Amino acid sequence: MLSKENINIFIRDGYCVLNIDLPYTVVMQAKGIVWDFTPPSFIPAEKNSWIGNVQRLMHDPINGR
Description:
It contains two helices and no strands. By secondary structure, it is an all-alpha fold.
């Protein structure tokens, strides 16, 4: 669960950083999902290309919801 401080940071910045341990396979799966929903102009190795809108995730591709 997020702390009140984390919630306020999220509201202020649009994101918050959480230091948690996740299995490598989970991290790689999440990374793949993020790139699936970015425009073709977003090139993973070129940070300067990461400008534009990302599609809103309308369902949970892992759990099928």
